[in-house]
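Appendix B, record 7
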Amino acid sequence: MAFKKDKFGWVKLKSGQTNYYQNSKYPNFLCYKLNVPGVLYPWGIRSGKMDDAGFEFDDQYNAEGFACAGKLGATLHAKKYQSKYKEAA
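Structure tokens (predicted):
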């Protein structure tokens, strides 16, 4: 099933208890939203690398909950840390 890009450029990869999103501008980051009732700030963004087995998190950069705020916040974090991630690798 193909998903369309949203206004921030994120494409949904997987649905379920946690929705994962990937952005071609920020290949080392996955944005996610928890689908759990009562979670006040369900968004987060984590770093890692995509390989044949899927996305492997390394948690070099991680923002969750209030620190991430939402998909806009995730986009801003990814934009800020993508260049730093490349330098650290």
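Remarks on this record: DSSP finds one helix and five strands in the chain. Strands lie at 10-14, 18-23, 26-34, 43-51, 54-64.
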